[in-house]
Structures are given as C-alpha cells and as structure tokens.
Amino acid sequence: MATVLRSTVTAKAASGSPGRRKGGSTGQLSPWRLAGFASLTVPIYAAQMPLAVHLPAIYSQHFGLSLAAIGAIFLAERLWGAAADPLIGALSDRTRSRFGRRRPWIVAGAIAFGLAAIALFFPVFGVTPVYLAVSLFIMYLGWSMIQIPYLAWSGEISGEYHERTRIATFQAVAGASSLLLVLVLPTIIDQVDPQDGALKLGAMGAVVIVSLILSLNFALRAFPEKPAPLTQPARLPLREALRVVFADRLLLRVLASDLAVTTGQGIRSVLIVFFVTHYMGLPQWASGLFLLQFIFGIVAGPIWAQIGYRIGKHRAAVAGEVVQIAINLGLLLVTPGNLPLLLGLTVAQGFAQGSGNLMLRAIVADVADRHRLETGHDRAALFFSAFSLSMKGGMALAVGIALPLVGWLGFDPAAPANTPAALNGLLYVFAFGPAVAHLISAAFIHGFPLDEAEHSRIRRALDERDHALQPAE
C-alpha cells in the first residue's frame, strides 16, 4: 500500500502547496509509518462484510437459528451501538494515562473484539440466540472501542489540511483491500464445496483474527500520541454528548452528507444481486461484478486524494457525488443481457466509490479543530463517533427503503418469473435510488465554508493559544 501511494507523497512534496511544510511534526509523514497505522482498518473492515452478508445466512442454514431471531439481535445491536458509540467517544476524549488517550481504548477493544470474533467465526459450543447475541454485542463493543479512538487519533497525527486527506487515503486503500480479500474467499470456497458454511466462516474469521494481531502492533508503534490539550473536556452524560454533536452545524452537514452517501451505497449493495440475476438474466455474474467493483475501488483512493489536494476536500466530495449520479443514471441505458455496458459502469463505480466517504472523514478532524477553538474542548473522538449514527442509519434506510419499494412495485425474488413492469421497477429503484441519495449528499456538502485557508487560520489560532497556556519555565 505504501508503494501504491508513494507517487502521491512525491507529487505533494514537490508542489509546495499551502499548509504543507516539509520536515517537523506537521510535515510529510512517512508512507511506511502511515501504512502501518492504516493497517488497523484491515480487521475492522474485514469483519464488516461477513457480519452483514455471510454470518446471518450461515447461522440460519447451518446452525438452525431463525431469521426472525437473527434479525432481532442485529436490530438490537444497532440500537445499542447508537447509544454506546457517542459515550465511548466522549470517554476517550477525557482519558488521561501514561499510554495516551487513544491507545488504552484500542488495546482493550482489540481484546474484546478478538475474543468475540473467535466465538462468532469458530463456534464450538451449542449455537443459540443467546450465544449469538452475547458474542455479537461484545464484538461490536470492541469494534467501537477500537474504531472511534483510532479515527480520532488519525485526525491528531497531523494538523495539516491536506495531510489529513493523505491519512484517510491510506486507511481507505487498506479497508478496500481487506474487503476484497473477504469477498474472494467465499468465491473460492464455493468452487470447492459451496455447502460448507463452517469453512467459509472459519476462513473469513482467520483473516479477521490474524490481521488484528499483526495490525495492532504496527498501528500502536507507527506514531506517538500527541499530548492531550491542557483544557479538559467537561464530563458529558449521553444526552449532553448528543446535544453537543447536534449543536454543531458544520458537523451536522458532514453527517447528513455521509448519511446520504451510505444510503445510496446501501441501496446499490442490497439490490445488485437481484438486478444482475433477475433483470439482467446473468446470475453467474452477480458475485463477480460486486468483486470487480471493489478491485477498482482499491486504486481509487490515491486518485481521489490527488483531486482533493488540488481542489479541496469538500469540492472533491461534491465531484465524486456528481460522478456517481451520472454512473447510476447510466444504468437506465442497460438492457437485459447487455453485459459490456454493465461492466463499464461497474468499473466506473469502483473508481468513484468511497470518494465521499474518504473526504468526509478527513473533514471531521477539521471540524473538531474549529470546535476546540470556539469552545476550548477537544471532542474529536466524540465527533468521529457520530459517524456510527450516519453509517448505521444509512444502512437501515437503504434496507428499509429499497426492499419494500421494489416489493410494492411487484418484484418477487422467489417468483419463477417477474413481469416486465416489476423488473422495470427494480431497475428504476436500483438506478434512481442511489442517484438521488448522492445528489442529496452533494447538496449538503456544497459550499462548505471550512476550506484550506480557513483551516490554516484555525490551526494558527490553536497553536498560539496552546503556546500561551504552557506553564512558564
């Protein structure tokens, strides 16, 4: 991954763009250190696809759990996460220890995450709804304890406007690579023994656990934590933490944009198998096209980083959304059996995917800087924890909108054959749903006032204030 992004490093070093200084703690960061730090996204993302796609089916088919029980457990986890994530963010911001603010949470979360992953992916006891619920809740708790402080730490490694885009790019490439790996494994196993659910589960679990052990060491050693601000955030109960989040208008714009992005991506993910299988009549291509999209998504990160360097993060986010609107509307031109056009649009989608997610997460650290300047409180982890609300909300909206809508339009995946009207309804939801969502996302982030010049002013003011607060020697 460091090799893939080395050209980005060289180009920006030569450009001498504003806000980027060579040398010192705020200059160019080592690509190898960034790769080590970004490696922690591998186990986090590697667990995402199995938990969302494969684990429910395998636990139902091979361990006999009812779909109703599995659905209720996953729904309860979403509600639990919505309450727990902001609390973890607020507590991480307040943590003071000899090991830093973020490291203790990441290590404790990794222990919980790893033990629960062993229980979920390698079940050795009788699998019951209680077994699934307890294991899943502990795993998601550990996931949040890793991810939220880790994202906050990624915004603290550098205060430079464009360097934060570079950090987010390394993380995006690592995450896309891990998703690709866990998508390939079930495909390979299907060629050997498609009925062996335990083998699929174990293979994906091995990727999660091994990558967690390796990446934890790399990430914790990659960079030192910067000293915590001298001003201590006030103790925040959950209700007050949520009030702080929803009172920041810039953060709300970023979250609303991310909610729309996630909803659009979710609609596409939920319907792509139905679209390729039933509308296109190409069931043998359903998994392959999904895999192809992620392959091209890996190389998309550095491309969008370069765009962000040149035009700014919020403009790059808008540009990415506009491209995705055009791609999704292009699906209206696809006709049953027309594989070449669908392949071309899938490749284009791979290049465009993640552009909004990458830029929006890089912007959050800038918004947290602005909040600290205005209030005197560093609440970076709390702000990053709010992304769990937009992510989970977007995924829930995608399922809650897309599936009932195509059903209302007459589509039935279990029917021997669907009517032309039902198949056209599937096409329209698959094309227009993501297009509208990406349009909404672009509208929220268009004209975002926190650009490179404004962020440089904020950082100078923060540096001056922090220097003034240092005790006299």
Structural description of this entry:
With 473 residues, this protein is mainly α. It folds into 2 domains: 33-223, MFS general substrate transporter like domains (Growth Hormone, Chain: A); 237-473, Growth Hormone, Chain: A. Helix content is 77%, strand content 0%. The protein has helices spanning 6-15, 31-38, 41-61, 67-94, 103-121, 129-156, 161-192, 197-222, 238-247, 249-279, 286-311, 313-330, 339-352, 355-375, 380-408, 420-445, 452-469. The longest helix is centred in the middle third of the chain and has 32 residues, at 161-192.
Brief summary:
With about 475 residues, this protein is mainly alpha-helical.
Portion of residues in beta strands equals under 5%
Q: Major β-sheet, in short?
A: none
Please trace the helix and strand order, writing H or E for each element.
HHHHHHHHHHHHHHHHH
Q: How many separate helices? A: 17
Helix content class: over 70%
**Count of separate structural domains:** 2
Gross morphology = globular
pLDDT averaged residue by residue: 81
In the CATH hierarchy, the third-tier topology of the largest domain is known as: Growth Hormone, Chain: A
Q: Which structural class do the helices and strands define?
A: mainly alpha
Second CATH tier, the architecture of the largest domain:
Up-down Bundle
The value of Rg in angstroms is 22 Å
Provide the low-confidence segments as ranges: 1-26
The top-level CATH class of the largest domain is Mainly Alpha
